[in-house]
Amino acid sequence: MSALDATNASSSNLHGSYAWTQSLQGIHFGPGSIKTALPKLLAKIGAKKALVVTGRSLHEKTDVVRNVENVLKELNAYGATFYEIGQHSPIAGIKNGLQQFKDVGADVIVAVGGGSPIDASKAILYFQQQETGGPYLKQIAIPTTLSAAEYTVGAGFTTEEGVKVAVNAPELVPAGIILDAELTLATPERLWLSTGIRALDHAVENLYRPLVPPPLKHLCYAAIADLFKYLPESKANSQAVDSRQKLQLASWMSIWPLQLERYSALGLSHALGHKIGARYSIPHGITSCLTLAPTVALQTELASEEDKEWLAGALFHLRQPSTGSIDGDIRKLSASIDSLVEGLGLRSTLTEYKVPRADVPDIAEQALGSKQNPVLPKVVALLEALY
Q: Is residue 283 domain-shared with residue 372, that is, in the same domain?
């Protein structure tokens, strides 16, 4: 094998690790990596007893949680499993989870599942720190979807009134993340693919999000290309672990951890998703299926010239020819996203989720943060077109 062949052979390696110098100390990835990565991470952070936090369906309908529990039991580090975390992380589950965390004497949470248990675990640790005044305790995240909640410093959860709110602190980012594609095989197809569009939403909106440095924007280009390639492959062959592993890596690239990041909506698509998700019980991934493509098209009217150039540049990475104009390229990107959503069988409407038309102005106002925002009529029109 020549040196060039050796380089090419290793370029698609699906196993490895990455370490962050602050709160996020290690990301381990690769099929089957749970067995080696979880012991390493527990030892690195000095944790002795874990509370596993997950959702009811994952706990009752799959063996995924049992696999994690078994690794912890072999290490004599298993405390208990809490599985009352619902969609959009309701505050009632967070309060009950905090109580069980204290009852079992846990010093670490191992969150297993999608964005809801991972965000709920951050919230549990946030409120635990607020109660004790001591240091933040740690979370190890084992995601089974592509929503990428594990890479942020914030936790979104739903109040008793049904309003999505957030807490954030740099210490809330998980101390360890394990991307084991074998654990995603039981994830329902619609959830898996729609959270892939959520990851695409991260990558696209990071192209015009303030304070994202150019090197990370280029990672987002790579994420966009891989999500467009491997989401259809994963739909065609749901048992292809290599495609799933590459999608997990694309999800990571879509929202690469930023040391100075604060938890906030990345852009208009995310802001709209936050407002319609919990309020109308629309899953995270589906909100992106609804809002991303039209939001991208709207950037031809709203974005700065620099941000437009970044958006238009995505076509090159998708190996699509330019239309000859920046605005035309952005509209073509929007159409490509729309076609991807359609091809994955994820098209939906606000009518399907029983969102009253009368609520549209209020949703738009909340997403923009002001009734006086001059963009408000355009956002109202965007939402009206989703029925």
A: yes
Mind listing the pLDDT tens digit for each residue in 291-326? 999 999 999 999 999 999 999 999 999 999 999 999
* Owning domain of residue 125: 14-184
Number of domains the chain contains:
2
| Number of helical H runs and strand E runs in the chain | 16, 9
User: Is there a contact between 16 and 246 (Cβ–Cβ < 8 Å)?
Assistant: no
Spatial CA neighbour of 308 closest among 208, 173, 168: 208
Rounded CA-CA distance 260/9 in Å is 36
Angle at 277 between CA 341 and CA 261, to 5 degrees: 90
Task: Please tell me the number of Cα atoms within 13 Å of 250 on its side-chain side.
Answer: 30
Could you give the 3-state DSSP secondary structure of residue 134?
coil
How do residues 39-50 score in pLDDT, each as one tens digit?
999 999 999 999
Are 72 and 78 within 8 A, CB to CB?
A: yes
Nearest to 157 by CA among 292, 286, 274: 274
Q: From its phi and psi, is residue 55 left (phi > 0), alpha (psi between -120 and 50) or beta?
A: beta
